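Order emerges. One example.
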Amino acid sequence: MASTKPGQRKLQILQALAAMLEQPKGEKITTAALAARLGVSEAALYRHFASKAQMFEGLIEFIESSVFGLINQISEREANGVEQARAIMQMLLAFAANNPGMTRVLIGDALVNEDERLQLRMNQFYDKVELACKQSLRVAVTQGHGNEADVTARASLLVSYVVGRWHRYAKSGFRQNPTEGTSLQLALMLAA
């Protein structure tokens, strides 16, 4: 790791942390274990991150930039509000399937016993996802699908569904793919 650039080292640390989070048993991750995995001292970790909380913040930033970048692409590409909402939900489920370690951050599992601001930040993430879903559903209402009175409840239901699928995926040791069987389920939740 000595010959890499500082930005690359930070990325390596975050990648190692995410890989450790992929362990199905979900044991608490220590900086000593992370340093050992990378073959460096704990002090080397702290040259790039002031705390373990900052390392988790780096993972959360990755999640936020990835997810909200994809939501923006879906919103720009898909004019139909119902299809926007469906695509956003499917993307969220696929993101978890493709990033099992990040799923433990998404559900807050990895944040237990860490700085409480991390869970607050994930709660804000859920709120923003729900807001994006509401926007898609409001577009759908203007297109004659559903009614405005149901938008908030439907958006909340959809986000709760996704979070439940994430939990089930993580608790199954990443064996139960969160995307399996979702087409019909989403169709039922999005039906007018």
